[in-house]
Each structure stands twice: as C-alpha cells, then as structure tokens.
Amino acid sequence: MFQQLVAVERLNLTPNANEQFAKRAETFVFYDDIPQTEEEVIRRAKDADAILVNITTQITANIIEHCPKLRYIGMCCSLYDEASASVDIRCAREHGITVTGVSDYGDKGVGEYVVSQLADLLHGFHGKRWSDRPLELTGIPVGIIGMGATGQVVARALHFFGADVTYYSRSHKAQIEAEGIRYLPLEELLSKNICICTCLNKFVTLLNEPEFQALGNHKILFNTGLTPACDLNALKKWLAHGDNYYFCDSMMALGDPSLQEIENVSCYGGYSGGSYQAIERLTEKSIANIDRFLQTR
C-alpha cells in the first residue's frame, strides 16, 4: 500500500476508479483539473510516494527532483516509448522511480473510425464523395504507415472489408504478412495507394514535402496518432490542391486549429479511441499496473 497516492490531474477513467485507488493507499488525493505550471504539479505531488497522470501534464526532471518521496508514476494513458512519453522516464529511472503506462486499450475504436469515415467518403453517405460514383471498400488500395497495435487493428479492419492493404514500418511484421497484408517501401506505398493512414507514435513526423510529392493528388490521408505525423506547412500545400482529403480525430492530432477552415479537412475534436469500453480497459490496466508494482515491493 502507498502512503500517499495523488492523481495530479484529471484522469479519463471510469467513475469507480477513485474508489479502487483509495483502497491502495493510506491517503488518496484526487485533483479534477489540469495544473497550469510545474510549480502547481510540485505542490500537489511533493509529499506523495506515488502519483497518477494523464497525457496532458508533463512530468519533467525538475518536478521529479522536487518530489523526494516519489517511487511510482502511473501513466493512466498510452506509453509507447521513452521519447514520446509525457514523463521524463530517464530521470525517473535515475531516481529509482518506476513508471508504468497502458497499451492496447483504445485501438478498436480507431479502426472503427477509419473504416466508417473512409466508407462514408467513398460512398458519399453524407453528401461529400471522393469519386464521381459511389465506391465500396472492396479493392480500394490503402497504405498503413506504422504497424504497432493501432496500425494492426486498422489494417485488419480494412482487410476484412476487402481493401487492398499494404504497409510500411521500421520492421517487417511476419504475422501481418501471413494474413495477406504486404510490406512496401515508403515511397512506393505513397504512390500506390489512394488512401494513407499514419499510425505513428506521438511526436513522430514522417511526411514532409518529398513524401507529399510522392503521394500525389486526389488522395485521402488519415492521421490516427496523438500528434501530427506530417509537416503542417507541407500538409497545407497538399490540401491547397483542392481534391485531397485529411482526417484526424482530436485537436491535438490536428496540430493547428486553422486547418479546420480548409475544405476537405475533417476533425471532430474527440478521441476515436475513447469509447466507454476503451475507458474501462484503461481503468482496469491502470489499476493492474499499481497492483503489480505493490506486489513486488
């Protein structure tokens, strides 16, 4: 059991989460807002031996160094790698602090988002249509960039509906290829497909001016990551052609609010991986992370 467990910001978890956290600490403190400064985070966390955070607040080296009792940081959000984490994991490790995060909780909703939006645009269910005639997903060439958990869900969902799915990733994925989804080099992937889905880690920017030139026009681009996967100026230039389409779910993924003013840009301002089922999985895994840590102490 922790001595003092502090949720330093609003957590996007189920209503019973706080009750479960309270059972695992002598004192549990919960803040239902987002701290605006490092000093405020330090004030909230300075006496805690464990803290919980969402994706919104950065836990910097300065914060860690001002919290001498801290031994556990629970990220109640995705943790892909150290480079994209909202916690300075290197500094935490140097101070003997364990950092945990969650994976594989919201990917199914992302797959549904891509399938639904692409099918809508191809058929013209709500008026706007990509072609001069309605099209099924069957046989439509779609390229996936990034074949982590989200990329695999998106690829398999589109493959199920008969799309011609290919992918590019830092490494080959034998299981995906065994299912009939082929690997292509990036430039070939961009030129071959009419739709591209970027499924990359936070802060990874892969599409720049040369990649948009390889992609060409009369194309569809989805960003399923938490932050933009492309250079925004290059994206704006590509969209200015007039017959290209860009989809993302959240404002964080959009990166620049002014993009909403451009025709053929769709951003509904939520999280496609934020269904209630996803939140339940996130809550369960966040609690399980705590239990695993406490069992080893």
Question: How would you characterize the overall build of this protein?
Answer:
- The protein has twelve helices and twelve strands.
- The protein has two domains: 2-105 and 276-295, Rossmann fold, CATH 3.40.50.720; 107-267, 3-Layer(aba) Sandwich (Rossmann fold), CATH 3.40.50.720.
- β1, α1 (17-22) and β2 form a beta-alpha-beta unit.
- It has helices at residues 17-22, 38-45, 61-65, 89-94, 107-123, 149-160, 174-178, 186-192, 209-215, 232-239, 251-254, 276-295, and strands at 2-7, 25-30, 50-53, 72-78, 98-102, 141-145, 164-168, 182-183, 195-198, 220-223, 245-248, 265-267.
- The strands form two sheets. The protein has a seven-stranded parallel β-sheet, sandwiched between helices.
- The model has no long low-confidence stretch (mean pLDDT 95).
- Helices cover 35% and strands 19% of the residues.
- α5 (107-123) packs across α6 and α8 crosses α9.
- With 297 residues, the chain is α/β, with parallel strands linked by helices.
- It is elongated.
